[in-house]
From TrEMBL:
Pfam families: PP-binding
Carrier domain sequence ranges: 264-318
Protein name as it appears in the record: Putative nonribosomal peptide synthase 2
Superkingdom of this protein's organism: Eukaryota
Length: 323
């Protein structure tokens, strides 16, 4: 599942690029790994983490060459994309070098000395984005029990500052779904770009779950405007939405086609802040002025009204009456 977190973050990061993503793109992501690499920690109690650098490479907007070019990308499927993510993460793990040793090696490089980059900083990190994934088994909890040591209930103490330039933390909550938290340093990512990345992560996960192509995902998350109210759902809002859907499931199941179409038109009018009459013509959702992020907003509005709307249908079926 950590490969899903790495892949989704890699794709979502393309949404905050200044120019549309084309051609070969490499992004170095960080991943935590359990490892004691500091001298003197051998007999210390606790869990020690080091940073694994995982470079991911994909070629956007290009067709795979007939000559058997080994560069991943182009018209490749989701399977090929995640195969690349798995291969790169396993290769990084098998060739692991402690982060402090890697920095020391790079500091001795003539190019780095010339650029005066001897000290680690936000301006020149080995990676800018840390991606972590906690499985359901890990998050199920449990108290640490040691003979002769009194243990207390776990306290969730969140740090008040960013531990990395950007950190995306995925937590599998079991039946409660997947929780995604974004933490970033203000010096690196302003509020607007952070909002855009947050919304892109939500869309990427939704589209990956629907089996969308890489090119389709890129078309959705790039070149669009972020709505301030469209953010990742909180655990409480997820629970509220689930409770509401369970209450309305019976009425939604027997809803006629005409009633369903009417509810969708009402949601479209609310989403785009337009009179409902403007949604009765032959225009498509996009011709009415919608952008890609509006699709996620529309889906949430329909859910609140008791209608399950497939995100893929919004993008692939022009006629709103066929949704």
């Amino acid at each position: 599942m950590h490969q899903l977190a790495l892949g989704a973050t890699f794709l979502a990061l393309q949404s905050i690029q200044q120019h549309p993503t084309r051609g070969l793109v490499t992004v170095a992501l960080g991943a935590p790994m359990t490892m004691r690499t500091e001298v003197g920690t051998e007999d210390m109690l606790g869990m020690f983490l080091d940073r694994l650098v995982v470079p991911l490479t994909w070629e956007f907007g290009q067709h795979s060459s007939a000559g058997g070019d080994s560069t991943p990308g182009g018209s490749g499927s989701l399977g090929e994309f995640f195969e690349m993510v798995g291969d790169r993460s396993r290769a990084a793990l098998s060739h692991f070098v402690p982060h402090r040793v890697l920095r020391s090696i790079l500091r001795e490089s003539p190019q780095d000395l010339a650029a005066d980059r001897a000290e680690p900083s936000l301006a020149w990190p080995l990676f800018q984005v840390m991606v972590s994934f906690h499985t359901a088994v890990e998050t199920a909890g449990g108290r640490l029990r040691l003979d002769g040591v009194e243990t207390v209930e776990r306290e969730d103490a969140r740090p008040q500052c960013a531990k990395f330039p950007v950190m995306v933390e995925f937590t599998d909550k079991g039946d409660q779904g997947l929780k995604v938290e974004l933490e970033c340093a203000d010096e690196l990512l302003d509020e607007g770009r952070a909002d855009r990345l947050e919304n892109a992560l939500a869309l990427v996960l939704e589209l990956l779950g629907g089996g969308a192509s890489i090119e389709g995902i890129m078309r959705v998350i790039t070149g669009t405007t972020v709505n301030q109210g469209d953010r990742l759902p909180t655990p409480q809002s997820e629970r509220d939405s689930l409770d509401y859907k369970q209450e309305t499931k019976g009425s939604a199941g027997c809803m006629s086609h005409d009633c369903r179409s009417l509810v969708i038109k009402e949601a479209v009018a609310e989403c785009l802040d337009r009179p409902m009459e403007s949604s009765n013509g032959a225009e498509t959702f996009w011709e009415l002025g919608a952008n890609s992020m509006d699709a996620l907003v529309l889906q949430k509005l329909c859910e609140k009204k008791g209608v399950d709307l497939d995100l893929r249908a919004i993008f692939e079926t022009p006629d709103m009456t066929e949704w």
